[in-house]
């Protein structure tokens, strides 16, 4: 997608602090972190949300989670991290390219806000 922020980051057109790269995924630091570690893991292909990604590319969905674990481990949080998908505007999704939030480094409450 020509106007997709995350597609532009994946393509290297917009700079980001890249944390981990695989054949199917790119992980980078969130620009508005909500925890000491707040990364986004995105598929290289443009898919609008988590459900669409699971339907279209289940192996890539699994790789998002594996990449998230690698990012958390590399940041010193191998056992305590939160993974979050926001699907749809009502759930807080603001960039409509599937992405997984990886948060760690502080205590989290439940339910989230």
UniProtKB/TrEMBL annotation:
Motif position, Histidine triad motif: 97-101
InterPro entries in alphabetical order: Histidine_triad_HIT, HIT-like, HIT-like_sf
Pfam families xref list: HIT (PF01230)
Chain ranges of the HIT domain: 5-113
Coiled coil: none
Annotated GO MF terms: catalytic activity
Active site per database record: 99 (tele-amp-histidine intermediate)
Protein's name according to its UniProt entry: HIT domain-containing protein
């Amino acid at each position: 997608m020509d106007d997709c922020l995350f597609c532009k980051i994946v393509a290297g057109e917009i700079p980001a602090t890249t944390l981990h790269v695989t054949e199917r995924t790119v992980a980078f630091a969130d620009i508005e972190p909500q925890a000491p570690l707040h990364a986004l893991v995105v598929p290289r292909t443009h898919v609008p949300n988590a459900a669409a990604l699971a339907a279209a590319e289940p192996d890539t969905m699994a790789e998002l989670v594996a990449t998230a674990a690698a990012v958390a481990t590399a940041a010193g949080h191998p056992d305590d991290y939160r993974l979050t998908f926001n699907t749809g505007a009502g759930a807080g999704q603001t960039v409509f390219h599937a992405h997984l939030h990886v948060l760690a480094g502080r205590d989290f409450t439940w339910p989230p806000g």
